[in-house]
Amino acid sequence: MSDYKNQDLKVIVFQLNNEEYAVPVNQVGSIERAQHITRVPSTKEFVKGVINLRGVVTPIIDLRSRFGLEEAAHTESTRIIIVYMDELEVGIIVDAANDVIDIPANFIEPPPEVVGTVEAEYIRGVAKLENRLLILLNLHKVLNEEEANSIKSMEG
Amino acid sequence: MDVNEYLDIFIEESKENLQMVNDQLLRLEETPNDLSIVGEVFRAAHTLKGMSATMGFQDLADLTHKMENVLDAVRNEIILVTPEMLDVVFEAVEALEAIVVDIAEGGQGNHDVAEVVEKLGTIEAGEWAGSIQTNSESELDNARIFTLDEFETAVLQEAKETGYHHQEIKVKLREDCLLKAARVFMVFEILEQVGEVIKTIPTVEDLENEQFDQAFTILIATKAAGEDIQARVLKVSEIEEVLVVPFDMEADHKNNRVSDVIKNETIETGDHEDPQEASSLSNAVKPKAGRSVVSSKTIRVNIDRLDVLMNLFEELVIDRGRLEQISKSLEHNELEETVERMSRISGDLQSIILNMRMVPIDQVFNRFPRMVRQLARDLGKQIKLDVSGADTELDRTVIDEIGDPLVHLIRNAIDHGIESPAERNQKGKPPEGTVELKAYHSGNHVFIEISDDGAGIRREKVVQKAIHSGIITHAQADKLTDKQVYELIMASGFSTADAVSEVSGRGVGLDVVKSTIESIGGTIEIDSVLDQGSTFSIQLPLTLSIISVMLVQIQEEKYAIPLNSIIETAIVKKEDIMHAHNKKVIDFREKVVPLVFLQDIFDIPGPPESNDYYSLVIVRKGEKMAGLVVDSFIGQQEVVLKSLGDYLTGTYAISGATILGDGQVALIMDSNDLIK
Description:
heterodimer; B: 5 domains
């Protein structure tokens, strides 16, 4: 991850509950419109189910639910961002995805103690750009570790 | 030369050659007199030596070279085939295999072969007890009595039963005959019109090379009369004399025995070089007598490419479903026709692609004969392995998984099933135990059966053990059927062997076998009769990637239930539902079948069902059944099985997903989880 410090970081910017988040573009496979999601029984609350992503059955999680926010009805602007992380391919539901921007490395700061309503462990840093504040997601934490474990242990 | 490029091919071919050596050595052990087998082994070993030297694997080349020397001596009848000598050769083959495996895993192919090389050297030097003088005697022996191996005897026996009789034909060519081989050929042609040539002295090869004086002898199975044959053969020019005498098998038998006793006095020079032809006469006797010599035109394709092809095709299947749906709703004639055509073609394509991935189960079976041989020796038991249906084909993915469970079951049969020779004698059984390995197709499944004629499963012992290990209670034990008791031995943490032996019984065991088989969509059943033996039958799906399912709807959700677990569908009235132990059950064909309400199990949102009728899908798991309550049946369909991915692992009662014609994902139910 050291290369983030030295060069610009190209990120996808999306909205969630009126805040702007960002994920590195190299971890994003595609951005999809909201579509039919097939529910998978006995999974975690935030796992919404699976979709058919061009022939690949892809699990979908709702980021609002994942962050403990209230879920919102899907709208015209709702998007599913397909992200790759450690060989996992997961779609995350966000309110809107609207931008691809370059963040100069020196604009990125470590996460402050408290950022909005999202628990700090899911955040890798924040970037201040003119009048915007972007929250850089730590996808590893969002998708993995205790969550993945808890899914397994629940069924195990 | 950049050898890396050829490494894969080298490894593949080395494995094949070693397998060939292995198979032929086992054949040789059965028919030690058949030196044509040695020739085959020699050829395979020679190829291996050449390749390994080219690739720079010195240890491999050296060891093969030594082995080749021994084989050469056997071929030239300097060394006699004995079990002890074969042991050493097998040891050498094992070492060779270890080296090849090492190379395949990226090693340098270095292996300590000194010990084996020395043993081979001992044999080669002729210090082995079994070595003999060259058999000048049989050269001089004009009477030339046929000595037959077991196989040829069986062929003759079979021929006799089907109304053929055996004639020994002595043919003498004129001394001034120029083209001896041509005359031989003509004689053969005539004889083949009237019967089957079983054997010749000297061998066909020698005859063709004119390596004989004036006379040769042929043994044939025929329906024609002796005089008739004689007259026919005499029509060939340059033949001086033809003598036809009926061949007496009994006399030969005696002769055989005598020659066994005196041992090594005469060495069999006969060559059953044409097993194909012979076995056409006696298919029933030994259908797998020889490897097919006709090599078909094949190319090697990397399995990854086939996987890619399969994946692409799966997407096509999904789109096909979608097209079918669209054309149905549009009711456009031409479109419908085109789509129908396309469906048909893609159906053909599907069977071809699936076929391409099919490999004969022989790939797994072929390592067993040696394993059984070794185990039998280690345990001091006499065991015969009967393999049938080795050409049965299965999807590669299934083949990859099934090897270990089969090894385990065979070990189990040999260790726990077959008794020691002494014990067998006491029970009045032949000292040699038989393990039968059988594979066959039936419907959409392949069955593999492993049966032994050993001790069988002792019910009380299993029950006792199961109670002891806390798998069942005393009360339960009395109620179990024999079959259920046998199934207990596949419960985890169960091992009945009184003493833990090297071979099996390390505590992990049949439960692993069972779970592996179930993980590839198969089932396993046990049948056993005390003191007569046990049979483990495994049922496997032909392929793992495209399966037939029944689509059902529950509220707004669609689920797919694999057809192979469904017995039938039924609609029952609400008032026909009974209660037992607080559970809802129905009386289905005289059996009490519990109902499983999928809406509750899967937490499907929606108002509770308020119909007067329940739609049921009756599923089974072994002997047990359950009725799955659904809202409606949609229909039967071929679907592509897809995994849910690594993120959602171990979901309860869901084994995977599939994509339907409308592009939506439907989950595939694992009814095994639902039946308790």
